[in-house]
Amino acid sequence: MSGGYCAHPTLGQPPLEPEPRPDDAGCRRPASRRRRSRPRSIEGEPMTVQITAEDIAQELGISVRGPVLTADAPDYAAEVAAFNLAVSQHPLVAVGALDAEDVATVVQVARLHGWKVAVQTTGHGAMHPIDAQILISTRRLDAVDIDAQAKVARIGGGVRWAAVVPAAAEHGLLPITGSSPNVGVVGYLMGGGLGPLARSFGYSSDYVVGATVVSGTGEILEVSADAHPDLFWAIRGGKYELGIVTEIRVRLIELSTIYGGALLFGTDDIERVLRGWAEWTLSAPDAVTTSLLVAKFPDLDLLPPFLRGRQVAMLRFAYPGDPDEGARLAAPLRALATAEQDAIRPLASTDLGQIHNDPTDPGPSWLRGAFLSALPAEAASILLETFTAPDAPYTMLELRHYGGALVESAVDSAVGGRDVHIAMGFGGFNPTRFADLPSAADALLDRLEPWLAPETNINFTGDQFGARHPLAAWSDEKASRIAGVQGRYDPDGLFHWWDAGERGAVGAER
Ligand SMILES: Cc1cc2nc3c(=O)[nH]c(=O)nc-3n(C[C@H](O)[C@H](O)[C@H](O)COP(=O)(O)OP(=O)(O)OC[C@H]3O[C@@H](n4cnc5c(N)ncnc54)[C@H](O)[C@@H]3O)c2cc1C
């Protein structure tokens, strides 16, 4: 343990809803509408003992092996930092767990004192500051073990895909990953996981075979189809407030190379490519997964000249098979317009991240998503008009074509948004335009209403909180089944993602 909690005028009682600290100018701390639990003794009687962050940190420091940090500790800022720099995390105590026992201890101590617990691995999913008092950082749970014979990877709760893919590739195997190697495996899988090979292989969480989960009562549970099947069902897509996963086990497929990459089209071809690609998706083969990114790049020297100050389209393509057949399947897309660059080629599985080339450095972002059931010419016109307008507040629009194995090889899990034609994500990276984005996004979704799918997967909903256009991440039936599991494994509501009122906006009210 290091660092004492800075002087806080309200720290006479457990700060279930912490006030901004004097040195926190500018830190947004949302008012919680969530059910409040009063601090309780082990016997369940209300406690009168008052506790500070320093007290909790001292208590944790006795039995937790990893670092326990209060806000004035030198390593605190690095421990809580999110990938999205627009979000600044200010838990009262941050704990870097070294193993499942560390996590269980934190949960038990937090429960005893009625404090809330949040979890962060990479901060790729950070959309708003956490409002729990304790943040468990899982990134030291970094073990990866490949059982080549069983074709199963055991993956620590803090691992990124970048560590799993090369380890599996040594055995000619591949996990079904997302677009970015830097995203955390567990956070991605708990949301479902839609990657660049999704039309061929389905949701990534369909490949989960088991997990080690610390429950809201501090128990370390081995979870699979046979053990705690309700929790196993829920962690594959239910995402939040279900427990802290310290290890997850996924089935691997035999695949070493794919035919994939991206075509880069210039500004003048954006309309032709978007319309042509949308038409092509109507008859695209299931074995091919494609997506289209329309992105506006700032005029910065650090960018390559072909991107600097330009709006371009990137058409991504992935086919897990023979390169000649892949080239044949890619031919209609290559014919849409003359690509300025053609980087579709045989790729080693370890280079899968090059298909999307997602940003690797932390930066500020505001993103929202919606799933579309169809993308007819009228909807394409709205998108073109919106995103190519010179004064648009947006930096990017991404359209991913799904379907195929997502539906055809579906397993029974909490995943929402399975039956989707287009997964749309859009937003900006320029903080000076962030204030314009929520209302612009609402207006856009109003216009797209006729084609909005009933569910948008939770990994894609983005920052919709307070949005006039709430999107469901699950059907009502799934949302209530997830809520039931949350209640069973976290009866005191210890795990804290966001307050319940806002949670309703994505379809799961406890
Ligand atoms: C650049 C980029 C690319 C992306 N690409 C895809 C994609 O292709 N497909 C897709 O489906 N999604 C994608 N996403 C969304 C991403 O999968 C989610 O944001 C995911 O939650 C990130 O997990 P994380 O651990 O990296 O982030 P974090 O912000 O650390 O975690 C997000 C949430 O995941 C949960 N979580 C994380 N670790 C644990 C744990 N050990 N135990 C329990 N809960 C945990 C917590 O609820 C946490 O709040 C992308 C996001 C970004 C920023």
Automatic annotation (TrEMBL):
A single MF term (Gene Ontology): oxidoreductase activity
**UniProt name for this protein:** FAD-binding oxidoreductase
Q: Is Transcription regulation included in the keywords of this UniProt record?
A: no
> Which Pfam families does this chain map to?
FAD_binding_4
Q: Where is this region: Disordered?
A: 1-47
Q: Which cofactor does it need?
A: FAD
Q: Where is the composition biased (Basic residues)?
A: 30-39
Which family does the UniProt entry place this protein in? Belongs to the oxygen-dependent FAD-linked oxidoreductase family.
Domain FAD-binding PCMH-type stretches: 87-255
- Keywords noted in UniProt: FAD, Flavoprotein, Oxidoreductase
Basic and acidic residues: which segments have biased composition?
Answer: 18-27
Record's keyword annotation contains Flavoprotein: yes
